[in-house]
Amino acid sequence: MKGEGMKSEDTEPLRYMSGFGNEFSTEALPDALPKGQNNPRVCPYGLYAEQLSGSAFTVPRRSQRRSWLYRIRPSVTHEPFHPLNFPAETLTADFTQGVVTPNQLRWRPFSIPSEPVDFVRGMLTICGAGSAASKSGFAVHMYTATASMEDTCLANADGELLIVPQQGGLRLFTEMGLLEVAPREVVVVPRGVRFAVDLMDGPARGYILEVFQGSFTLPDLGPIGANGLASPRDFLTPVAWFEERACNFTVMHKFEGQLFAATQAFSPFNVVAWHGNYAPYKYDLARFCPVNAVSFDHPDPSIFTVLTVPSDTPGVSVADFVIFPPRWTVAQHTFRPPYYHRNVMNEFMGLITGMYEAKRDGFLPGGASLHLCMTPHGPDTATFESAIRPDAEQPAHLGRDTLAFMFETSQTPRVTPAALGATNIDRDYYKCWVGLKSHFDRDWRPAGQQPAAEAGADAERERQGGGGAANGVERAAPAGANGPVTVAR
Ligand SMILES: [Fe+2]
């Protein structure tokens, strides 16, 4: 964002307010918030009062989401909106038509263009369900950007955006203030909040989950207790920041997947003070406190849920944002990688850094995979063969830079023609499982029940990492005498 004019403060360092879903109050100028009421006849400093409602007026109090903005000129002051032609029809918010496939899908890293492309123009819809028009379902997008948004902002009427940077830091100008978000952090922009994206350190790439219904919230912890996973205090919301700047500004409005543009003669980032609980926030994924198995077996990946969008069915989300963070893996007599799986839910995965524990090859940072309802998936051949070796019994660390994530959804997404026809789609993905060979041994017997002549052979198979007897709890070996080792992956 360029230009001169009065600004509320220098942008370095940015300041944030801590907490999830709090009722925040913030002023860039002293006493800018009205005292004791929301909408006085004349506001302090001659500001306009404007409410931004993120929930229906009459929802239960616990679901109320709204903020009051006090701004130099109101957001209603603009020329009429006109449709924008979006390049190659790569953006959509209606999945009533679309492609379904039971095949596993994977994309190699999405290439970053060489020409100037900003965050909005660089969005490519991969898949989704429902439609923005019906306020049902979601969309998954990739973004690649090589240019900052210049005197342009976006307001997304279609839903709430969870942005997951994979490469390149982003500075977000929002009506509520400034945010900076780097890879390994995420940011949520509520429906309708105007924002612009500057690139902080060169080309940028990342993932977006857009939910047409509901909004992101923290999962309940159940028996985990009061602590663990994502802590509310680690979610950061910007303090009020404004600029009073005359310019030819374009406000883009995404409405049912279409982009519209309107011009106005001033910056929309002119909110001097605001209060409420409807605002963007960021979260550092390194703050996530994983809870996992410390004895045996593999918890379901829901144990790594950072944020969830509940549906009307208890326990079933519209979408979950799940991460697979760096951590120790210690479960004994256990196949430690993610299990082979078919799921009524749908799993879109991305990789931010490092190597994902279930894939030795082909799943790369900036790429993605998609396994739809009941599509089989799981560790590739190399991962399986490695994980059944006896030395995989020792405590190990997955590597400090590994960070994968999953958007898990209840409605089955349809894939866009643009994503299916992308040049980086991996048409050989299925081959990563073709090499899984049979380890079946019809003569296998539980420990202690083999004929004497076969006991030695069974022990030999175990020593070599094969044979079903390794799954017998009674045969479990304790951790190696040499202590923990770090597995470089
Ligand atoms: Fe799965």
Automatic annotation (TrEMBL):
<keyword id="KW-0408">Iron</keyword>
<feature type="binding site">
    <location>
        <position position="377"/>
    </location>
    <ligand>
        <name>Fe cation</name>
    </ligand>
</feature>
<feature type="binding site">
    <location>
        <position position="347"/>
    </location>
    <ligand>
        <name>Fe cation</name>
    </ligand>
</feature>
<dbReference type="GO" id="GO:0006559">
    <property type="term" value="P:L-phenylalanine catabolic process"/>
</dbReference>
<keyword id="KW-0828">Tyrosine catabolism</keyword>
<feature type="compositionally biased region" description="Low complexity">
    <location>
        <begin position="447"/>
        <end position="456"/>
    </location>
</feature>
<dbReference type="GO" id="GO:0005737">
    <property type="term" value="C:cytoplasm"/>
</dbReference>
<dbReference type="InterPro" id="IPR046452">
    <property type="entry name" value="HgmA_N"/>
</dbReference>
<comment type="pathway">
    <text>Amino-acid degradation; L-phenylalanine degradation; acetoacetate and fumarate from L-phenylalanine: step 4/6.</text>
</comment>
<dbReference type="Pfam" id="PF20510">
    <property type="entry name" value="HgmA_N"/>
</dbReference>
<dbReference type="GO" id="GO:0004411">
    <property type="term" value="F:homogentisate 1,2-dioxygenase activity"/>
</dbReference>
<dbReference type="InterPro" id="IPR014710">
    <property type="entry name" value="RmlC-like_jellyroll"/>
</dbReference>
<feature type="active site" description="Proton acceptor">
    <location>
        <position position="298"/>
    </location>
</feature>
<feature type="domain" description="Homogentisate 1,2-dioxygenase N-terminal">
    <location>
        <begin position="15"/>
        <end position="285"/>
    </location>
</feature>
<keyword id="KW-0479">Metal-binding</keyword>
<protein>
    <recommendedName>
        <fullName>homogentisate 1,2-dioxygenase</fullName>
        <ecNumber>1.13.11.5</ecNumber>
    </recommendedName>
</protein>
<keyword id="KW-0223">Dioxygenase</keyword>
<feature type="region of interest" description="Disordered">
    <location>
        <begin position="443"/>
        <end position="489"/>
    </location>
</feature>
<keyword id="KW-0585">Phenylalanine catabolism</keyword>
<dbReference type="GO" id="GO:0046872">
    <property type="term" value="F:metal ion binding"/>
</dbReference>
<feature type="domain" description="Homogentisate 1,2-dioxygenase C-terminal">
    <location>
        <begin position="287"/>
        <end position="440"/>
    </location>
</feature>
<keyword id="KW-0560">Oxidoreductase</keyword>
<dbReference type="InterPro" id="IPR046451">
    <property type="entry name" value="HgmA_C"/>
</dbReference>
<feature type="binding site">
    <location>
        <position position="356"/>
    </location>
    <ligand>
        <name>homogentisate</name>
    </ligand>
</feature>
<dbReference type="InterPro" id="IPR005708">
    <property type="entry name" value="Homogentis_dOase"/>
</dbReference>
<dbReference type="InterPro" id="IPR011051">
    <property type="entry name" value="RmlC_Cupin_sf"/>
</dbReference>
<dbReference type="Pfam" id="PF04209">
    <property type="entry name" value="HgmA_C"/>
</dbReference>
<dbReference type="GO" id="GO:0006572">
    <property type="term" value="P:L-tyrosine catabolic process"/>
</dbReference>
<feature type="binding site">
    <location>
        <position position="377"/>
    </location>
    <ligand>
        <name>homogentisate</name>
    </ligand>
</feature>
<feature type="binding site">
    <location>
        <position position="341"/>
    </location>
    <ligand>
        <name>Fe cation</name>
    </ligand>
</feature>
<comment type="similarity">
    <text>Belongs to the homogentisate dioxygenase family.</text>
</comment>
